[in-house]
Amino acid sequence: MTQTTRPNPLRDPMDRRIPRIAGPCALVMFGVTGDLATKKLMPAIYDLANRGLLPPGFALVGFARRDWATEDFAEVVHNAVKANARTPFREEVWKQLSEGIRFVAGELDDDAAFDRLKQTIQELDEARGTGGNHAFYLSIPPGLFPAVVGQLRSHGMSETTTSSWSRVVIEKPFGHDLRSAQELNEVVSTAFPSSSVFRIDHYLGKETVQNLLALRFANQMFEPVWNNNYVDHVQITMAEDIGIGGRAGYFDGIGAARDVIQNHLLQLLALTAMEEPTSFEARQLRAEKQKVLAAARPPERLDLYTARGRYAAAWAGGEKVGGYLDEPRIPPDSTTETYAAIRVDIDNRRWAGVPFYLRTGKRMPRRVTEIALGFKQAPHLPFAKTDTAELGYNALVLRIQPDEGVTLRFGAKVPGTQMEIREVNMDFAYGGSFTESSPEAYERLILDVLLGDPPLFPQHEEVELSWQILDPILDYWASLGTPPEDYEAGTWGPASADEMLARDGFAWRRP
Ligand code: BG6
Questions:
Q1: Can you give the pTM of this predicted structure?
Q2: Which domains does the chain have, with CATH numbers?
Q3: Strand 59-64 versus strand 231-239 pairing type
Q4: Which of 139, 203, 240 is the pocket-test mutation for ligand 1 (most atoms within 8 Å of CB)?
Q5: Model confidence at 16, in pLDDT bands (50, 70, 90)?
Q6: CB-CB contact of 173 with 466 (8 Å)
């Protein structure tokens, strides 16, 4: 037996004992009154501080069109932390964090406000030792990027020097189609070189998504079956039980495919289907993701292999739930989909002939994200037909959330005098195997921004390739001029989505 001499592509275990702590820096946040800032970003910053991963002099600067003083902003952060932080509230951590909080009030087109912002961060550089290292987090609609980016550039805040760095963090949606994504990228690149642009796809910050890399590339047993010799289809699901909540302004006109498939689900597809990168450095990882996204294509028959739906009023979970059109501020003639399913094919040796089915929806029966590889039937079953009547297909399911882990499904003998075979599950659960709790995706990603560690951030090329897959589908749906098919709130989506899989001899999983 030859022993492998290849270095382990995962981090050297010794490295893991040294916490990765960000150096002195300031985070400037635009969009501080938004949901994302208060529910995710502010709590994540506190959690990082609480875990000792932020430098003592860390500074957080809010910029918004509010008539607020720094104390008011600090209170907003305080309330957000108290309500949403993952780790316990500790007065001493909060005290240290709050000393670095500042607020600058102003409009995005107000030069004087950006002068004040510059002055504020320069003062912090002195007072807190942040040394000119600044990350600008644009948690704002992309339509506002040109204004902010232009201001940062003209006020000399976007430059990275030999002794300090300036980075910009942008949130999806990265455009609403290929063209607008390119335009957006041009705007951002007028001020920031691509190495300073951190595009957030928060799914990549999830532990279970990174575990996909561990599962595939730290083990020998999966790779031999990870191809079209053994796998006959792949299902990637992100289902949510909630509706659009108060997000009508954002969601209507965008829809489920742009909101989730273009980014989260195509990233999951890329990580599932890509070849092994030579290392997990950004350049290598991105190269593999790009290669597989370039080989992925939308279905030829868009009528048969795409489905879109919209939740309709129904009884769900014992209460009457309104339909999408009943949500506040949704126009009655809206054609936005709240459910989308598509088939993607990958034209390469590994995956030719294996359909990847992607689906996402709001108001589904439960919140669940998973990647399921379905395996071919054994070529020969030396049993009586009735013995295997309850044998489905073998499956490997990566449970991304909320019940984090991995399931292997296979057939086993039912105890008794007959050879009767039934499906069973073998489960790995994060909670049962590790005592450490999983950090929130935003903790990891914000820390990586501050550390300047780019592997978990998709590059513009990936964004473009994803739009190339989605654009024909969106154009096709728009050309129909009809609203999406209704599905009852609390169900697994429209009938056309079931028909889409049935056509290929498969059925959606009901996790
Ligand atoms: C966001 C989408 O990117 O992801 C939301 O814009 C969605 O519509 C959210 O609700 C889901 O994130 P998570 O981490 O709860 O699966």
A1: 0.95
A2: 22-171 (3.40.50.720), 204-440+459-502 (3.30.360.10)
A3: unpaired
A4: 240
A5: low
A6: no
